[in-house]
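Office hours follow-up: a student asked to see two folded examples consecutively, so here they are.
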Amino acid sequence: MRLRGRKGIREDIERQKELVVLNAKDYKGKWSELFGNNNPIHAELGMGKGRFISEMSKKYPNINFIGVDMYDELIRKASEKAKVAHEITVENEEDAVLSISNLRLMLFNIEHIEEAFAEGELERVYLNFSDPWPKKKHARRRLTHPGFVAKYQQILNAKGEIHLKTDSQSLFEFSLNSFADMGLRMRNISLNLHVDGIHPDHVMTEYETKFAGQGMNIHRLEVVIGQEALSTHQEQLKQAAATALAAESKESAE
């Protein structure tokens, strides 16, 4: 895919040094230093126009967010979305853009994502409406192909998770098989995320808003990667099972 943007786009994003990162490899292992804190870091790989990552950074100020895409034009569009989400206007832009302290937009090719993040540097990876690459010969380009997932495992920490949303049934089925083949634990699997309506706290992407409005099913799942995250998940399952057993026993006694 090639995008045509207006003239001067590279100069535009180069001026936004507080928000846009053009030399991602220089920050490998140093992202916490860039953000100036040790808060968890979540990255959206293939952020598109940036609505999701911008809204998330506004909603969760104690988490650092990085939106990643390889196209200058999408970085520019995402920077505009970020300013809208954080209520920055032309009049206050010069000073106010510094207030987006927990968001960075990274111009980078996801194929080499392990070159931008050190081992265990991220806590969560979002894959929202990634290109499904429907042709079988292009399977390796899918962001849930084992080749990519192995890289996510490398850069995610002990609490690491992958959150996936897509409108593509074929990509979702491929992803389920990919994660299962790698022996990864999946949870909160949904074949129609918004069947009961859109939850008011749910942050939508541009595509999600469009597709949900057309009545299309949104598929979603979470993959538990880190050992600490897996232990927490298993404990939650045990507690849920114990609660269900207690309720069943009480019902039988009555």
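And the second, which I mentioned at the end of office hours:
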Amino acid sequence: MRPSRGRQETQEERADRQWSELLQELRVAQTGVQILFGFLLAVVFQSRFEDLGDIDRNIYVVTVMLGSATAAALIGPVSYHRLLTGRRMKPETVIWASRMTVLGLVLLFCTMCSALLLILRVALHNQLALWLVGAMALWFLACWFVFPVWALARGRSGRRAEEHEDEGEGGDGDASPDRGSDA
């Protein structure tokens, strides 16, 4: 007898579970965005803000706008859920909330890079700032997108290999050490 794969849950149960998982993810992201956005809003009231050149002021404005868009995208799923609660649309709500969360992560990536650019330009006053932001952008991309996509690809190829092994089983009771015994 082969162990069961996946969960045995209804579409509504799956949507409830996915919604709970998404809320936990949003709590982490929203906290960081709110702190970053709060600092960004306070920068304009600092005395050194007047010393910024036009390029740095423009970077600041872009960063604040990106921060606003990020907050909207990451808070949006809560509003979406609240307005659709009780309308028997949980699976659709989870899909759209998930999409808004991914958009929020892309916007957060842009916000972080823009904020880093502003800070490093002010701190270093040279081209090293661009190189450091570029390196950090690659790191963000790797952590947030490349590693998960890589894990997904590895998981899919691993499942395909298991399926091929299962199709080829001869039923001789010989359990490999990797799969363990079903007895």
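Two things to take away from it. The chain has four helices and no strands. Confidence is low (pLDDT under 50) at residues 170-183.
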